[in-house]
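Appendix B, example 12.
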Amino acid sequence: MKIQSYLIFSILLMLGCKKSKFQQDNIQKDSVSYFIDRIEVDSLLTHNEKLILLEKSYSSVKNGFGNKSELSNLAFKLYSFQKLKEFKSVSFILLEQSKKAHDSTNIALSYRFLGGYYKDALKYDSSYYYYVKAEKLYSILNKEEDYANILLNKGIVQSMINDIYGADLSFKSAYKIYHNTKNYAKSQQVLNELGLVQKKMGNYEESISYFETSLKLIDEVKLPTPYYSKSIAYNNIGLVYNLMSKFKEAGFCFEKSLDFYKKSKSIKNPLVYATALDNLALSHLNNNDLKTLPNSFYESLKIRDSLKDVSGITLSYINLSKYYNKIKDHKKSLLYANKALDLARKSRGALDILTALGQASEVDAKNTLKYSEEYITINDSLQLLERKSKDQFARIQLETDEIKQENTKLESEKDFFLNILFGIAVTGSLIVMLMLQQAKNKKLQLIKVQHDADERIYQALLEEQQKLDEARIEERKRIAREIHDDILGRLFGLRLSLDSNHTEPEITYSEDLQNIEKDLRKISHELYDKDHLINNFEASISTFIKEQEKQLKIPVKFSIDKKINWQKFSNIALINVYRIIQESYYNIAKYADATQITTYFITEENNLVVEITDDGKGFNVAKTRKGIGISNMYDRIKESKGTIEINSSPNQGTKILITIPKDTE
């Protein structure tokens, strides 16, 4: 019996000695850092053991343990293990603690965490809200890298809801910081995002230019994952060439993408390979090169199916339907079109459903009308949702700016009261000094101090005014030179070419070009001589509209409210209003075929309101907004801190409403 007991004790002792450090961690510990450090340093831990340690660390936080530093480390670790629910909870706890401690750095970090969480959850309005709050704080804290990271992620969110112009601005601002700080990996990532944005805008050449710059940067700075990065870039270039119907060039780029992917050893993402393979196969199909088809489509489908990539599977079905439709196998073409549509409907991916409906309507002639009606309904819903998202983004930005202004106001009030207290203290000190010193000496000293202060203030004002004047003069000369040297030179060359051909229509064109030259010379001289437009805005706009009425030969109703105080609006704002009206009238002359135009200037709540209406053919605002003219209008309004509404539809005329706030500066 004693021998049996001894054997049992020995076995238990041996088993106890073989227990891993992880099994000994059942001792109760409340330190969040302890669990995080174990995950970092213990290389023998399995994935499941690390998850258990994370859960223990999270439980400690829920029980009230953990300082801000530990909370931020835990949040990073939870996100890396994709424990998103716990990541969100820890982020809110960190935010609450940071606000109580008035810790701006960790408040900004909390906002960044929450923006990332909601971005992954596809809740883009909430993500945008937190990214904007983080952006404002990092801007104040002067943390350039963090600020750039927020701009990058904010731009991605804007791009996802097709706020293309906003995304473009965010990416360009981020790229400027990354470039200056020589963060080449991030610079290369932003260049790819800018290329994708330009692709959405339809600026295909500019899109390719960004991707090629990205490739050049990869070679110049030797990034850590060059082959993988090149694979992504070439795949994106191929997609642009497909949109340009340059299928041969697209195929070349997709082949390069696959080659670089195979060379990549540090990163292996099967979805990237499947996507490039599917794109290459589609490019071959469009180029009538069917040698590798449909095998390439099936290989890509197999990979996507193994990874449960629903959108990818849907796209593979659609491409197979296109292939079988190409070779006149209508039965299989219809089969895969229906498979794509069924899968898209089950996943409820709106964009997948639209793509599948487009293919189904092409191969199923009997149900084309039904598919088209469903397509229109879903597309309209998407556009409405997109508009709502953009409006929500605009409101978030506005509310954040208002909060920032309110904080600035509170800071000013705080400084004011501090200055009063400081003034009282100084006054008390002066009284004591007056009692100790002779009145005459004190008076002379105060006069000297006041004189020196006044002189410094006056000198500072003179220097500031000189800088402003020099900047205005330089800008005016630059614009004048551009008009005079570039535009006039090109027009003069065109007129010489037309003069060499003496047919009647070309002579008429030559006379018109001479008139344009005269007008442009007049503008360039006015820019050099004086602020003609700024100082004579009402007269300038009246003259312009009268000239337009004469040229268009249609009635123009025009009025300016006498109550408008032009001095309340900045020079830049007035110039921008003038240019927008010019663009509007030129568009009416070129496209509208209108019979009447109205233009009103009124003042509402100290704002300048301009309304331009015509009864012409109208246009689709959503499509035309991509044009340079309309884009310039929005840029000018943004520069003037105003708003512009363009309401138009085919055969319904056009109404443009411009609102410019008074210059509070």
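Residues 368-436 form the longest helix (69 residues). Residues 1-9, 11-29 have pLDDT under 50 and may be disordered.
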